[in-house]
Amino acid sequence: MADGAHRSVTRHPDEDRVFDGLRSFFSSYDVLYVAATGGRFAGVTAMQNFTDVFDASLHELDVNEPEDRWRKVLESVDFDVVVGYPSGVKLASEVAGEHGVELDVDLVVAGGEPLSPELRGYLESKLDADVFNVYGAAESILMGVEGSGDSGVRLFDDLVYVEPRENHTLITPLHRRTQPLIRYRLDDKLSKRDADEEDSVFTVVDSVVGRSEELMWFETVDGDRDFLHPLVLDEVEAEGLQRYQFVQTSDTGFEIRFEVGDDADVERLRLEIQRQVEEMLAEKQLTELEFGLTEVDGIPVDPDTGKRKMVSKEMEG
User: Fold this and answer.
1) How confident is the model at residue 295 (pLDDT cuts 50, 70, 90)?
2) Cβ-count burial 35-49 (b if 16+ within 10 Å, e if not)
3) How far is the C-alpha of 91 from the C-alpha of 71, rounded, in Å?
4) What is the C-alpha to C-alpha distance for residues 129 and 127, in angstroms, rounded to an integer?
5) Is residue 210's pLDDT more than 50?
6) What is the DSSP letter of 158?
7) Distance (Å, rounded) from C-alpha 74 to C-alpha 61?
8) CB 84, CB 95: distance < 8 Å
9) N or C: which end of the chain has fewer CB within 10 A?
10) What SS3 state is found at 125?
């Protein structure tokens, strides 16, 4: 954990033997991690800690890199495990298929966004692997898991106390020591099952409903297609910026709608957003795309999730 909550814990000798066994097992594994690896996401730190502890070989695939780079990474190693956002794992499997690369993996670990039954079935069929759906948040990185063949997410009640509400969830992590969180609010919606119907000592929830974003696909100048991933779009930051949304308006352009605080310097803010987005497009080699910025009074909330979408599409036809 980022707050160092586990560092002061002394393990029993039996636990040391378990860790030695796990380290021996994972040391031969090549792990592909599909995410915004250059960002400040908790999952990046968690994956780096995991591979450090268990001596696994971590291969990062940044969602902001050009598709040609994806092909080179996917061709470089026979991966054993794929970890990442469901949309990123799906995209990796599609890119591999387009270039004749076989992803023969044993395990897929998905997390960070909703995993629908349809997408889970697709990944299981396409990759011929067990798919585990991990539920977590930056405030308590690992909170539950839905194993391959399971129906429902089992919450780790011994690590975090979870209180589902109608339109949100309260969590109290029990492992944090440096900075305790008590009844911290998440905007996730959990549908809790009747304990009498479940053969589990842990709380089971039907689903985790959060913000599920779409990729923005664009046509490139050489006639190919490339994408911008919501994980990268989510990194825009500027003083006075309240909220923003990317709206795809065509195959070659998009609009950024943004809200500002009461005392914000709108023109300075507009220039800073433009600078960051231009850098993002340059890294992705999509500088030919056209985009505009529009100040708005508010970004609408998705009634199904209770969250504001990072990506919206308003394309003709």
Assistant:
1) very high
2) bbbbeebbbbebbee
3) 11
4) 5
5) yes
6) T
7) 9
8) no
9) C
10) helix
Domain ranges of the chain: 13-209, 216-313
Report the DSSP beta bridge partners of residue 108: 82, 131
- Is the pLDDT at 41 greater than 90? The verdict is no
**3-state helix/strand/coil string of 42-100:** HHHHHHHHHHHHHCCEEEEEECCCCHHHHHHHHHHCCCCEEEECHHHHHHHHHHHHHCC
Q: Which helix (H) or strand (E) holds 22?
A: helix 13-26
In this predicted structure, what is the pLDDT of residue 20?
Answer: 56
In the predicted structure, residue 233 carries a pLDDT above the cut 90: no
Paired tokens of 230:
């919501």
Question: Which fold, 216-313?
Answer: GMP Synthetase; Chain A, domain 3 (3.30.300)
- pLDDT tens across 245-267, in order? 999 999 999 999 999 888 888 99
- Say if residue 298's pLDDT is above 60: yes
The token pair that represents 244 in the structure block = 């923003």
What is the value of pTM for the model shown?
0.66
Best CATH choice for the domain 13-209 from the list 3.30.565.10, 3.40.50.12780, 3.10.20.600, 3.30.390.50? 3.40.50.12780
